[in-house]
Structure formats: structure tokens, C-alpha cells
Write a structure and sequence with these properties.
- This protein is an alpha/beta fold.
- The chain is 29% helix and 27% strand.
- It has helices at 10-21, 80-89, 108-125, 183-189, 191-199, 209-221, 254-264, 283-290, 302-314, 364-375, 384-391, 404-422; strands spanning 4-9, 30-38, 50-58, 64-68, 71-74, 91-98, 130-137, 140-147, 150-163, 167-171, 201-205, 225-229, 271-275, 294-297, 318-330, 336-348, 436-440, 445-447.
- The strands form three sheets. The chain has an eight-stranded mixed sheet, with helices on both faces. The chain has a seven-stranded mixed β-barrel with strand order 1-3-2-6-7-8-9. Strands 4-5 form a two-stranded antiparallel ribbon.
- Helix 6 (209-221) links the parallel strand 11 (201-205) and strand 12.
- It starts with a strand and ends in a 37-residue tail after the last strand.
Length: 484
Amino acid sequence: MSGHRITLLGTQHERLRTWFNGHPEGHERGAIAVFRRFERNHAGLRPSIRFVCVDIIEMQGDWILGSSPVHLRVNLRKMQDIYFRCEQEGLELGFVHNHPGGFLEFSEKDEDNEQRILKGYAGCNGKSVALVALLWVEGRWRARIRRGDAPQQTEAVRHVAVLGTNLDMHINGEERTPSEVLKRQAAAFGAPFNRKLQSLRVAIVGVGGTGSSVATLLARAGVGEIVLIDGDVLEGTNLNRVRGYRTRDVKRNKAEVLAAYIQSLELPGVTVAAIGEYLEKSPAAIDAISGADVIFGCTDDVAGRDLLNQTTYYYALAFIDVGLTGKIDIGADGEPYLRDHRGRISRILPEDGKCLRCQKVVTQQKLDYERELRARPELAELDKETLRQEYYLVGGGEQAPGVGPFTSASADTAVATLMDLIRPFRRIPSDLLKDNIWYDFVHMVIHSNAHPDDPDCFCCGPEGIKLKRERGYRLDMPALGKIT
């Protein structure tokens, strides 16, 4: 699916909706929005800019020269400070307004307002600028883009995504003939559901046991653009729990092999790209994530999860992280048995749910142990007590066993979590939390881990990194390279 994408946080959406509905005489109202522009496209995907709103300024007082239920005249002299801010902070300008009279499309007056604003904007900041035009009418968003070098032309926006407690998607463009493949899915969730999935760009980090199942499920569900990220090669021991791989693929890069497999399915409207690199070593992978709408974390390393956790807030993404843990014991017959095996689904939005650090999935102790283990692999042979006493490290113990039905069940639940974000269907009991749900495959119990709020959390706390400027480096980390 072609077209650009726009993201509003839930609080921004509510602020604009309240502003538009609040005129005492029912007049048209306007606002300025400023956006961060992510145009870091990856080969294999259609060019699509993602505009993420970072601030809103209601137009009132001397911003307005005149208004009525069907028109709005804006004082362009007030724009100079906004142009300067966009230039200094690397932002793009947006003009947002409503049609209280119910006219469903952009009007001729809108055309005139947008071109006049863009003329001044491009005159000050150069012709490479883009103007985001947003229209609120009849409870939905419509949008289009204009460029400084072609102000009379408009470019399509495929959706406006509102990230609040769910992922509320406002689809632009004409209805398409529904795919035969997805008819039963439409019967469950309605025809617009499939269009919303097709509009998404989803990045999956780690395409082993859980990630390969997530990727193939998303493709078969009709997600329009999928980016697979993994620097690892397939091992023979992976074959009992992965999807889309064959024995002849052993020692080949997982992301590249799986992308070829999904392409071979020839699913209508599905495009897939691969980045065969490790997340923490790949500027291309970070760039691809910044241009995505949703990320699935299916990696087994803590450092990778920590990076994904931060991208959720820097880039305003929906983040679903999948993890497995387990313990093996030896029975009276001398054979191993599963004492414990659980799958975790963490569902985190920028303004809803606690981050992975607050959920204790990522801790400094785990990060320290993992870093030391990479430098000294022999530490993996030591027991927990020796690690603690002699190396001052907390960690160790065997990895979670890889059992196909458990990895697949966790992947199934993760994809269902995305579906619930887009078209809520779950009735969650009061003892469960939406942001983390654990599935105990041995004792057949479902539970959540509640953790106290941390107002000082640098990720999800009030003074955290939500929509923070990167200041020249990806995620504000020099090790990830300069943003070009």
C-alpha cells in the first residue's frame, strides 16, 4: 500500500478533539501541529514518510482573522516563530482544522489556506519542506501532504494512527475489493479491519522460534509491509520450533531466508524486506524501526530488548515483546522434566502500559551479566552463586528450553494482541494487566506481574524520553551512528 503515515498520541488526539468541539458558536477551528519526520526507508519497501506529532498549538486570539461554521481565516504573520522552530529543531509543520458543518472532504478554502501557509513556510525554510494537512470531521481524521517544491499537488496519506490505550487507525483512500484469503478474518472483525492491517508497516526483531511464527502469521493475516531484522544464522537445533525454514537453510541468515519464504507465498498486498544484521550494531535496523508503525520484540538478548524499549518512546511506536522462560529438573527416573515453562507477552504503548524496565524484564543486573558473558563466554559454565561471589554478577543458569508448541503459542498470542489493539475484542479479567500477561504452559495458569510505578523511570516516567529529540544520533546514542 502506498502513501505516507501520520501518528498522533492519544493525549494529542483528545486535546484536538476537545478544542474543535469547544467553540461556543460552533465555528470552524484550527491548530498548528509540529511533526518529526521519519524518511528512513529500506530497500524493498515503497517510499513512505512517517510523520509523528510532537506538539500542538491551538489557534486562538490574534491567530484568527475570521471564522464561521464553514470557514476559517488565519493570520499568517503569526507563523514566523513556528517556521523558525521547525528549522531549528528539524521539524515539519502541520495545519489541523475541523469541519463542524459536516462537509466530509477538504474544501476549496482549505486548498487556499494550505497553499498560503506552504508558500510562507517554503519561503523561510526552503522548498524541501512538507506541510501536513489534517482534517477532523464526523469523528474521523482525513489527511494529505504538500511539498514546498510542488505546492499545488497533494500526496496521499494511507492512515492516521492514534496511539492511546489502543491503536486507533483512521484509513484514508478508497475501499478495495476484499481479498478471498481474508474473508473469514473480515467476518470476525469487520471489513475495515483488513484494510487497517494492510496499511501497517511492522518490524520484527529476532526471527527464530517466536519471531518466525509471528512473521508468517502477520503475513497470512494481510499486514501490508513487514521488515525482518536478525543478524543470526539458522542452526540445526532451531528446526524443531521455527516456521518457514528448511534443513538446507542451516547456516544461512535467518532474516533473509524467512523473507524469501514469505515472498514465495505470494500473499496479496504483502511486501517483506530483510535486514540481516544485529539490532545493536545496525543503523539500518534502527532506521527501519523508526519508520515502522508497530514493532515485535522476539529477540533473546536483554540489550536488544532495552533498545526496543527506548524506540517505543523516541519514535511513538506500538511495541509487543515476546519472551519465554523455563526450568528443567531431573525426575526420579533420571530423565529431565519441565518444572516450569512460561511465555510472556508485554504490550506497551507510549502512553499506556509500563515499559520493560518497569516490568523488570530489563534490569541493569541482566545487562551487566549479558555484557560480561559476551566478553568472557566461559562465564556461562559457572553457577549463579559462584558468579555472584567471585564476579559480582547476577545471572547464569540454563537457557529456557526450546519447545515448538510453546514458542508457537506465544507467537499466536502476540499476534492476537496486535489484533486486539486495532479491533478490541478481549475481555480481560480484573486480575490481569494489559501490559504483561504470562502463560504458564505447565500449570495451565495465566497471570500478570504488577510492579509499582517508577516516576523516575527514564523511559516511561513523566520526565522520560517520550518524543525526545535525538540530537543528531539515533536514539541519542553515538554508538548507533549519526542521523543523515
